Amino acid sequence: MSFLGVAVVRQYERGVVFRFGRLRATREPGLRFMIPLVDRMRKVSLRTVTMPIPSQQVITRDNVSINVAAVAYFRRVDPVACIIAIENVQTAIGQIAQTTVRNVVGRSSLDDVLSDTETLNESIKEILDRTTERWGVLVELVELKDIELPQSMQRAMAREAEAEREKRGKVIAAEGEALSAGKLAEAADVLAAHPISLQLRNLQVLGEIAIERNSTIVFPAQFLDSVRDLSAFVAREGGPSADAPAVNGRTAAGAMS
Predict the structure, then answer these.
(1) Which residues have C-beta within 8 Å of that of residue 59, sequence separation ≥ 6?
(2) What SMART domains is this protein classified in (predicted)?
(3) Which residues are 6's β-sheet partners?
């Protein structure tokens, strides 16, 4: 109804008034009156617009062909420039966004595209913001939302990841073997210094085996020798205290004779 001289501007809009084709003023939200048949108003929305950037094929710096899709968020901050500086601001932003995404991704390697997307997003946003500033538009955010790799590249990356995990597993196993060998060497030194401890360890192992009642224990000849050595050791340790009274008795008998 602007041609009748009455218009309602919503809170999220601004009205740009033209009089006989010339810019007259910018109207704030509310009920606005104009000169009928003379003034014309065009309303500009200041809300944030979500613009999907269609998927497009891009060749990266290391000659890998991928499909990249993105999304951009922008809003109009200068209602006059949005109308006067460019014919269709949304179409223009969509075209420049596709070109910028293709150029930025094409200058990057595949590893950077997959692992450093935040830097790419910021680079695309800065380029778009500089380009659209003269159109009265502020680009708030750009995100790469879909990166599609060829099937052959996916298989190659899967094999690489699997090989990397196998390498880490072998390194961990080797470190465990080295640590185990060092501890075994320390244990062997202790057992060599105290031979009886080896026999005690054998008895401990037999005790652990005997807990399972369905086990059959076979004593090898070497183990019997170990048992005899253990008995001899116990006899040597307990012998002097047991023979001391007899020696004293013989000594006393000789003195009496």
Answers:
(1) 65, 66, 106
(2) PHB
(3) 33
For residue 238, give every residue at least 6 positions away whose Cβ sits within 8 Å of its Cβ, in sequence order, or none.
none
Q: Contact, 49 vs 57, CB < 8 A?
A: no
User: Cα(125)–Cα(183) distance, rounded to whole angstroms?
Assistant: 58
- Cα–Cα distances (Å) from 11 to 3, 44, 45, 185, in that order, read 21, 11, 9, 82
Q: What whole-number distance in Å separates Cα of residue 50 and Cα of residue 36?
A: 36
CA dihedral angle for residue 196, residue 197, residue 203, residue 209, rounded to 10 degrees: -150
> Looking at residue 205, what DSSP letter applies?
H
CA distance 53 to 93: 10
- The predicted pLDDT at position 3 comes to 63
Helices assigned H by DSSP within 23-88: 79-84
Rounded Cα–Cα distance for residues 106 and 47 (Å): 32
DSSP result, 129-147:
HHHHGGGTEEEEEEEEEEE
Residue 76 vs residues 61, 136, 155, 180, 228: alpha-carbon distances, Å: 34, 6, 44, 68, 98
